[in-house]
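Operator note (shift B, R.M.): manual run for DUF2510 domain-containing protein requested after the automated queue skipped it. Running by hand, logging everything below so the morning shift can see what happened. Input copied straight from the record, untouched. If output looks odd, do not overwrite the archive copy; leave it for review.
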Amino acid sequence: MAAAEPGWYDDGTGAMRWWDGSRWTEHYADFGFGVELRTGAVPASSPTAPGWYDDGRGRTRWWDGRRWTAQSRFSGGEDSYAGVVVDGRWIHLGELSQPIAGVVAVVDSLERIGKRPGFSRAAHAKALFDPRGRLTWHQFSRFDGRALGLAIESADQAWITFPPPGDEAKARQFAGWITASAEHYRNR
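Run finished. Output pasted below as returned.
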């Protein structure tokens, strides 16, 4: 399974197992009833012809013949705001994707976001990202603490993005919708 991005894939035994980008880990998933699994995303042997393929993470991405590129497409029914895209059961920021079930979204000052236990834990575990990629705790602490941020927290990572100035009401509405969607899918 060379050249595949980290994610949940069928390991060939019918079980969904975590691929860390270079090897299988010991983690298996029980997604439960009603969850649509995308097992055709990255075949055991990577696609050879360039083209659009399901990447198994809620979107279609361009395979250039050797690796996935940053070009992606969604279903057409997605909602997006400040770089965050929600398309059904998946949430995306740049090249990052994860199931939406269990995430929490908040809008607050960066100072207060940085004090949230889940956010702080992710930052110190080097699992903090903004739309450009990985963000170190030092880089995050250099932002103006009074600035408004939209934070997405999950069990193993945190994302931060910035709503347009003067758009706090829409940012809060979007964050509330993400959290409600995450709760909905967590209980299915």
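Quick read of the result: The first strand starts at residue 7 and ends at 10. The helical segments are 110-114, 117-124, 137-141, 168-186.
Leaving this for review. - R.M.
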